[in-house]
């Protein structure tokens, strides 16, 4: 056998070895992914539940012109992980208040945290919005709410979560929760301003709608 034939056979054997290694690695990766996916299907993670427990309103004032709203409110939100085998990481979660679909406070960033199996986490962020411009029609709608004796604002939770199963950590999933807060009040309404629930604490225990 010539030197050229030996070199050709050596190159061919090396290619076969590389091909086998590639097939072996690919098969191992496919097996691992299949096991992870199968485990995921068996465990079937359930989204966290959120409850708006209370709200303390220090100020809720709307100036008629030029339609400026100022809000100072502290809320208590409880979240529970309903899963028995899956943990939840809260990576970046903001809380803010809206009225009739318009944001009226700055977002308050919750601390990053891990929620173990069946654990409950409680946050009490302070939500503030000073001289926030809103649409003109909100003044009319707020007057109607005042006449009815009830104002509803919405506490929004917006952020990202990850699931933890054993040592496996999933990618990030968008978390969105909407918590209605019905606030009754004693106050007065005039063309210039309305004051609702000044420094009053409302026990709400309101279940929130959650999407993940």
UniProtKB/TrEMBL annotation:
It comes from the Eukaryota. The chain crosses the membrane at residues 21-43. It is found in: Membrane. The keyword Membrane applies. Keywords: Membrane, Transmembrane, Transmembrane helix. The keyword Glycosyltransferase does not apply. GO terms for biological process: defense response to other organism. One of its GO terms (cellular component) is plasma membrane. It is a single-pass membrane protein. Residues 76-172 form the Late embryogenesis abundant protein LEA-2 subgroup domain. This is Late embryogenesis abundant protein LEA-2 subgroup domain-containing protein. It comes from Cuscuta campestris.
């Amino acid at each position: 056998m010539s030197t050229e034939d030996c070199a050709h056979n050596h190159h061919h054997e090396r290619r076969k070895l590389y091909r086998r290694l590639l097939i072996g690695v690919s098969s191992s990766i496919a097996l691992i992914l299949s096991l992870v996916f199968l485990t995921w299907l068996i465990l079937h993670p359930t989204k966290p539940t959120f409850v708006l427990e209370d709200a303390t309103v220090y100020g809720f004032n709307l100036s008629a012109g030029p339609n400026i709203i100022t809000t100072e409110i502290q809320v208590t939100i409880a979240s529970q992980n309903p899963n028995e085998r899956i943990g939840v990481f809260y990576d970046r979660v903001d809380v803010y208040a809206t009225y009739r679909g318009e944001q009226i406070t700055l977002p308050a960033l919750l601390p990053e945290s891990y929620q173990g199996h069946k654990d409950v986490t409680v946050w009490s962020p302070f939500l503030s919005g000073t001289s926030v411009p809103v649409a003109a029609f909100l003044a009319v709608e707020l007057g109607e709410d005042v006449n009815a004796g009830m104002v509803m604002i919405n506490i929004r939770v917006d952020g990202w979560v990850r699931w933890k199963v054993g040592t496996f950590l999933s990618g990030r999933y968008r978390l969105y929760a909407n918590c209605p807060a019905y606030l009754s009040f004693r106050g007065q309404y005039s063309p210039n301003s309305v004051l609702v629930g000044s420094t009053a604490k409302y026990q709400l225990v309101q279940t929130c709608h959650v999407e993940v």
